[in-house]
Amino acid sequence: MITELALERVHFACGRCWHEWSVDYDVQQYRDDQGSDWEYFSRDGASVPSPYTPAGAVPCPVCGRRWVGRILARRSIPTAPGPAETPRESVLDAPGHRPERHGAPLLGATAHGQPRQPGPPAEHAAVAAAD
């Protein structure tokens, strides 16, 4: 049973080239039949390991080094059915229900504005000036 749905924006900062970027992940928490709680991550519809663990560390788009992320922002998504007074619509014709959604472009995990890139740290700037 799904116990929580959320969208999490994860921030990454490369410790090698200082590039910063962020990625949106869909997160589901669920409880299995034995009562154990699990977390499931996906990005652009594909299952991925948790970006908060070494196994899920993503490569820097500039230099390729892998970095574990940290949460930047989070939005919970209410799970159904919700309270009785929650607005909802009955789906009478499932195949024909809102057909435009099937042709809508996918919202990519990196479709949002990326963090502003600061200049290199002072010690790197001093080294570069000395060269």
UniProtKB/TrEMBL annotation:
Residue stretches of biased makeup (Basic and acidic residues): 86-103
Region entry Disordered, spans: 75-131
Low complexity bias spans: 122-131
Protein name: Uncharacterized protein
Source species of the chain: Streptomyces roseoviridis
Source species taxonomy: Bacteria, Bacillati, Actinomycetota, Actinomycetes, Kitasatosporales
